[in-house]
TrEMBL record:
The lineage of its organism: Bacteria, Bacillati, Actinomycetota, Actinomycetes, Streptosporangiales. This is Transposase. Residues 1-42 form the Transposase putative helix-turn-helix domain. It comes from the Bacteria.
């Protein structure tokens, strides 16, 4: 069972600016990752990442 809680925050202007910057960064990373997964799913550039991973000593 999932439980949800609703709460309200009243940040100061400085905290609001920090939150906006943080959420903007998270949104950017999410969108880039989503685009990468979409590209991989449709078969474009699938081998480029595999080749790069094979070039590392750790994953070779």
């Amino acid at each position: 069972m999932r439980t949800a809680y609703r709460c309200r925050a009243y940040p100061t202007p400085e905290q609001a600016a920090t939150l906006n910057r943080t959420f903007g960064s998270v949104r950017f990373v999410w969108n880039r990752t989503l685009a990468w997964r979409h590209t991989r799913y449709h078969g474009e550039q699938a081998n480029a990442y595999l080749t790069a991973m094979k070039a590392t000593d750790e994953l070779a």
